[in-house]
Every structure is written in structure tokens, then in C-alpha cells.
Design goal:
single chain; 329 residues; alpha/beta; Rossmann fold; Cytochrome-c3 Hydrogenase, Chain A, domain 2; 5-stranded parallel β-sheet; two-stranded antiparallel ribbon; 11 helices
């Protein structure tokens, strides 16, 4: 199967993340699955006329297109023309190319939250009218219509993340190559369920502090960051703390709160990323599936039962009180 990869309105960070795929590297992995790039603007040597001819052949249906990957949001401005972002040398906007090529592709994959929902590129007043391929924020309908389906009968597959995990991209492509990507494999926002059925909270190293509501007050401290520092890993989908990044790390493992970058409209939470909005001292964003009354009761009991070791370590930047050593019975 072949892959055409286009980079639209974004920072290129998802390609940089993809290159961090390890054991094996991304090119070896894809080759082993029978996947090859027709063209990738960063990884391919071809440019100029050969690429223009390739794109035109694909647009006209003279050559098959198995997988269209788009990284970065699509700019619809000004006034729906898309001419804020012209695909260099073609005389046509990226918006036009996406709309022409997507129906030709057996599968369409949006790589990263900019491509899926608009992401950082769409933040603020969004003067370029940046949108995702099939979503405008949380609302269906972006560069492509809400009812768009690829030749395989699927909506755009939204591999959300800012940047997206390299394994999320490669596993999606491998599932497509193996014929295992079906509608049932996608969640309500069309994210692959192999990672979207998990929460970032799962396997977070701060879970002991979370259980006792032993909270950090500064980013350098070891405690749970939900209560004061804006962490919403209990609501955010992603297996970031299960499969890890770059050898095993993650945002929360590195001491920074989860900002829910796999979700539409994460870029404008209405407050600082490292701040927890509260009402009467209670965080407004509660863990998934937990009623407010339950959380209040649990938090009160947990704080009252916090062991001194956990309370002391939560406000420190390293372990100051080690676990007690249990002797044999």
C-alpha cells in the first residue's frame, strides 16, 4: 500500500515525533508491513516537477492512492478560498488539493490535533479560518464535509495529539495495511480506540498522590497536579503513561500537567494550562464518570487519611520520606 503525506498549517512537530519511533525505526517498520511513501515533504528527495506530476496523476485517478495522511490544519481563508496556504508550485491551495485527493484515497488519516480538529493553529481569533480535515473544533464538518467517507467507507481517521505519539501513527497505518481498521475501531471523535479507550491517568506515576489528594502547588513538586496545577489526565484520552514517549517518559512523568491535547478545542481551555479552575474550592473538571458529590466525599476522606510520608513527598521535588521497611512476620 502507498502513502501520500501532505503538511498543511502546523509546526511539523508530528513528523518530528514520528521520526522518534523506535525498535524498529519508522521506515523499516512501514517497509516490513508493505507500506511505502509516494511522497513525504520532509522525508522524500523528490521536489518540483516530479511531485507536481505525481499529485496531478493522483488527482485525475491515473495512479492509485491507498492512504492520504495530512499533518497540520487546513486553512480555509480568505473567504473560503484557501489561498492563505498555496501548495508551492502548483498554483492551487492546499484546501483544493485535500478536497480533490481525499475522495481518491482508500483511507484518509489526519495526523495530529491540528489536522484532526484545528488545534493550536486555530486558536484565538483564527484569522486564517484553520480547521481540521473533518472537524472544526468539536463540530463535524471542516475542510471536508461531515458526511465524507473514504473509498473504504470510513470517515477521516483522527490520530489526535499535539504532537501525536509516533506509535499511534504507525499502529494506525499497520491496522490499515492489515485490513483491521473498521468503524468499530474508532471512538465518537473518530480517534483509534487502541489508544483512545485509555486515560492519561492510567499508569501515571503520581497516582499514589492522587489517591490521597496529596497535591503539588508548584510544578517542581512531586504531588498530584489535578487540584492546583491544571492536570486533566483523569479526563484525557491517551495511553501516554502506558507506552511512554521517547524511551518511556510522558508529560506527567516529566512533571507537567496533562492538558488533554488529544481533545478538540484543547487549545483554548479558558484559563492557564497549569491552573485549575475551581468553584468554592472544588475543581470544575472532575474525573471521567465521577459525580461531583462522590468526588467531594472521596477527597475529604482521602485527605484525612493521607499518610505523613505521602503528604511530605507531595510538596517536595524529590523523595524526602522513603517507604517504611516491613520486617518479616
Amino acid at each position: 500500500m502507498n502513502i501520500l503525506w501532505l503538511q498543511s498549517g502546523g509546526c511539523g512537530g508530528c513528523t518530528m515525533s514520528l521520526l522518534c519511533a523506535e525498535d524498529p525505526d519508522v521506515l523499516t517498520l512501514l517497509e516490513g508491513a508493505g507500506l511505502e511513501f509516494l511522497w513525504h515533504p520532509t522525508l522524500s528527495e523528490a521536489s518540483g516537477a516530479p511531485v507536481r506530476h505525481l499529485l496531478e496523476d493522483l488527482r485525475m485517478g491515473h495512479a492509485p492512492l491507498d492512504i492520504l495522511c495530512v499533518e497540520g490544519s487546513v486553512l480555509r481563508g480568505p473567504n473560503g478560498t484557501g489561498r492563505f496556504h498555496m501548495l508551492s508550485g502548483t498554483g492551487r491551495s492546499m484546501l483544493d488539493w485535500v478536497r480533490d485527493l481525499a475522495p481518491r484515497a482508500a483511507h484518509v488519516v489526519a495526523v495530529g490535533t491540528c489536522a484532526t480538529y484545528g488545534g493550536i493553529t486555530s486558536a484565538g481569533e483564527n484569522p486564517s479560518d484553520a480547521v481540521g480535515l473533518q472537524y472544526d473544533g468539536a463540530h463535524p464538518g471542516g475542510a471536508l464535509a461531515a458526511g465524507f467517507r473514504s473509498r473504504a467507507g470510513l470517515p477521516v481517521i483522527n490520530v489526535a495529539g499535539c504532537p501525536t505519539h509516533p506509535d499511534w501513527v504507525t499502529e494506525t497505518l499497520l491496522m490499515i495495511a492489515a485490513g483491521e481498521m473498521h468503524a468499530e475501531a474508532l471512538d465518537p471523535y473518530a480517534r483509534p480506540r487502541f489508544y483512545a479507550d485509555h486515560l492519561v491517568h492510567h499508569a501515571c506515576p503520581k497516582n499514589e498522590f492522587y489517591e490521597y489528594k496529596a497535591s503539588a502547588t508548584r510544578l517542581s513538586e512531586m504531588g498530584c497536579m489535578m487540584e492546583h496545577l491544571g492536570c486533566i489526565g483523569t479526563q484525557a484520552v491517551g495511553d501516554c503513561n502506558i507506552r511512554g514517549w521517547n524511551g518511556g517518559s510522558s508529560c506527567t512523568r516529566a512533571g507537567y500537567p496533562c492538558i488533554n491535547c488529544t481533545a478538540p478545542e484543547f487549545e483554548e481551555p479558558g484559563h492557564g494550562f497549569s491552573e485549575t479552575p475551581k468553584f468554592a474550592g472544588i475543581p470544575l473538571g472532575l474525573p471521567s464518570d465521577m459525580p461531583k458529590a462522590w468526588f467531594m466525599a472521596l477527597a475529604s476522606l482521602s485527605k484525612a487519611a493521607t499518610p505523613p510520608r505521602i503528604a511530605a513527598n507531595a510538596r517536595a521535588d524529590r523523595i524526602v520520606v522513603p517507604p517504611s521497611v516491613k520486617g518479616p512476620k
